[in-house]
Design a protein that fits this description.
This protein is α/β, with parallel strands linked by helices. It contains 12 helices and 11 strands. The chain starts with 5 loop residues before the first strand and ends with a helix.
Length: 329
């Protein structure tokens, strides 16, 4: 049932230096919030007047206060942060949690209290599932992040790994992927081995570059503190005091998955990410990711976090595309 009751709410902000950042260029943030929630926002000096449906106005008030808090803590805000705040509010409503500050302080998945600090930027969750995922990585030695593309599975894992490395909690970062179609047949590609595998590991390089200066990444790779390599390079090794990420794990075979899982050494953490529905394995070959979830789910010390289409944090069309494909299937 649609809430047709009209509500008005006046918000006043006490730092004029932050107002342009809150409003956005040419009031873009306010305009986006108006369209998203079907409300009107009138600005006059440091005062905003919100008008519209009661629940929509209440949501907008909470979003604006959340954004203001981020700005007050020297964090950047944009459209993505508006969408993130709305996601958390919708989850609160679904769980019957009040919007008030005291309730949010009790809500571990609020997101505003979870911040990953890296050299170049601070990374915050943009959905309740992302908040749960970050906490799971921080509190468990082995975590499986499952779900569609664009939900932040790899990006957030890299962020936590970089943060733990910078804090001295691990001595090494190891990132790997099955190259090509899980069989890792690289010989036909031109160039040396590094040139052959770099295109398939580029998403990890991109995530790393968001969090560390490029020259730092290169120096750490040269020193061996950071290793980015195809899955096949992990055979026969013991990865101790390391943060390990296996990305695109749906393209492993059960044998490959068992191999990487048994590489864990003393004081290591491992994150396995992938989308079981997007395997490139030949017909009839079972995905090692699916196999591992069936075998390991329920084991103590292993966390499984499953993302949904609503957790997609890329362009809004990505979520629509995924839903359309799901309906077509």
């Amino acid at each position: 049932m649609t809430d047709k009751s009209i509500s008005n709410r006046v918000l006043e902000f006490d730092n004029n230096d932050l107002l342009p950042l809150l409003f956005g260029e040419h009031n873009a943030h306010l305009g986006y919030l108006e369209n998203k929630l079907d409300i009107t926002i009138a600005d006059r000096g440091n005062t905003l007047t919100l008008s519209g449906g009661k629940q929509a106005v209440k949501t907008a008030e909470h979003v604006l206060k959340s954004l203001w808090q981020k700005l007050d803590e020297n964090q950047n805000i944009g459209i993505a942060e508006i969408d993130a705040a709305i996601r958390f509010i919708e989850e609160d409503k679904k769980n019957g949690t009040s919007f008030n500050k005291k309730a949010n302080q009790k809500n571990k998945k609020n997101g505003s209290e979870i911040l990953i600090k890296t050299k170049k930027k601070d990374v915050a969750p943009r959905s309740p599932n992302q908040a749960t995922y970050i906490e799971a990585i921080q509190n468990n030695e082995l975590v499986f992040g499952l779900g569609p593309a664009g939900t932040g599975k790899t990006y957030l894992a890299v962020a936590v790994g970089v943060s733990m490395y910078l804090e001295g909690k691990v001595e090494k970062l190891v990132f790997c992927r099955p190259a090509l179609e899980a069989g890792e047949k690289l010989g036909f590609l031109p160039g040396d081995m590094q040139e052959k595998v770099d295109p398939y590991l580029r998403p990890i390089y991109d995530a790393m570059h968001d969090m560390m200066p490029w020259d730092t990444i290169m120096s750490k790779i040269e020193s061996g503190d950071i290793e980015i390599a195809p899955l096949a390079f992990m055979r026969g090794r013991t990865l101790s005091n390391a943060f390990v990420i296996l990305d695109e794990a749906q393209n492993t075979t059960p044998t490959q998955m068992k191999m990487i899982l048994t590489r864990m050494g003393e004081s290591s953490r491992m994150v396995i990410t992938g989308d079981i529905t997007q395997t490139d394995l030949p017909n009839g070959v079972k995905s090692g990711l699916r196999d591992a979830t069936e075998i390991l789910e329920g084991e103590d010390g292993i966390a499984f976090i499953t993302f949904e289409n609503k957790d997609v944090v890329r362009h809004p069309l990505v979520s629509k595309i995924i839903n359309a494909y799901d309906r077509h299937k």
